[in-house]
Design a protein that fits this description.
By secondary structure, the chain is of the alpha/beta class. Helices cover about 30% and strands about 25% of the residues. It has an 8-stranded mixed sheet, with helices on both faces.
Length: about 325
């Protein structure tokens, strides 16, 4: 196996509040290989997006990276000065946000914004920048790209604006793109098109991706490996097909059981009992234990994330062990 492109070790991101530190990300570790698409899933508030922002160094007060390491191709990113991080963002690591309005300026043409993204990292002529921008738009499926460069964002549909945001992320040929629920606001047909195009981009350009989502079905259609987060920690990981076929953590099993596709016609959807705990008042030990149908007294202590081969699980009594018993 080649050396990881991205190596995250014991990452901790805290937000200081009047009630004390809120541990949004608490000891997260994982790696991403060149050209690999990794899915990062979990409920709202599980720490998925904060993990992505932490990798890019986009945590501002009252938040801070409280510990851990983030290495890109062996280079430590945690602790770099802002100027060094700005040189990395958009060139070596890009991000696609859920709402393209977070990327696009409504008063500038698409071509102007794309040229600015290129000129932030290198000096190029206007024609060369325009040609590269048009090529990027074509790559994400926008026809008549040279003409559309002169349009403003409001002249594009929601799906087309998201394609433009993806094209901007690709402009400087980054090694890694972090995609923070980029298809959630789009209709199903546009979602499918963008997922297909992103898989092709990863295959053709060798770009690695972290695909952040709460939607297991979407992630399973694009990612090759899955990381499941709960209450700021990774609680299960493994190849997508293996995790979906035989989840090891009761939380992952509950997520899969709650999918509409897994419900019998006419039957109520299965729900995980209870609700996600407040990060200010996590239970001792396993944060999922109050909602877990298999909880035992030992779950009052925090389990380690135990890896065996390509699989990993943070559970004292993982499901595959009970299944063998």
């Amino acid at each position: 196996m080649t050396a990881p492109l991205l190596q995250v070790e014991n990452l901790a991101t805290h937000f200081m509040t009047r009630s004390g530190p809120l541990k949004a990300v608490d000891g997260v570790s994982f790696s991403v290989q060149p050209g690999e698409i990794v899915g990062l899933v979990g409920e709202s508030g599980s720490g998925k997006s904060v993990t992505g922002f932490s990798i890019l160094g986009l945590i501002d007060p009252p938040g801070r990276i409280a510990g851990g390491s983030v290495k890109l191709a062996g280079e430590e990113l945690v602790g770099l000065p802002p100027s060094a991080l700005r040189a990395i963002r958009g060139r070596r690591i890009s991000m696609v946000f859920q709402d393209p309005s977070a990327t696009l300026n409504p008063v500038l043409t698409i071509g102007h914004q794309m040229r600015l993204a290129i000129e932030a990292h290198e000096t190029v002529g206007e024609k060369a920048a325009r040609d590269r921008a048009a090529e990027a738009l074509l790559r994400v499926g926008i026809p008549d790209a040279a003409r559309r460069l002169d349009a403003h964002p409001h002249q594009f549909s929601g799906g087309m604006r998201q394609r433009v945001a993806i094209a901007i992320a690709l402009l400087n040929r980054p090694a890694l793109i972090i995609c923070d629920e980029p298809t959630t606001a789009l209709d199903v047909s546009i979602q499918a098109q963008i997922l297909t195009e992103m898989k092709a981009l990863a295959r053709d350009l060798g770009t690695a991706m972290i695909w952040i989502s709460h939607d297991l079905a979407t992630v399973s259609s694009i990612a090759s490996r899955l990381l499941v987060m709960y209450a700021g920690r990774i609680i299960e990981e493994g190849p997508v097909a293996d995790v979906l076929r035989a989840p090891h953590h009761p939380y992952t099993a509950g997520l899969l059981a709650s999918l509409p596709a897994n419900a019998e016609p006419g039957q109520d959807l299965v729900q995980i009992p209870g609700s996600t705990p407040s990060l200010f008042a996590l239970p001792p030990g396993c944060a999922f234990s109050p909602r877990c149908p298999h909880a035992r007294p030992q779950c009052g202590t925090m389990p380690d994330l135990v890896r065996e081969g390509a699989r990993g699980v943070r559970c004292h009594f993982p499901l595959e062990i009970r299944g063998r018993a």
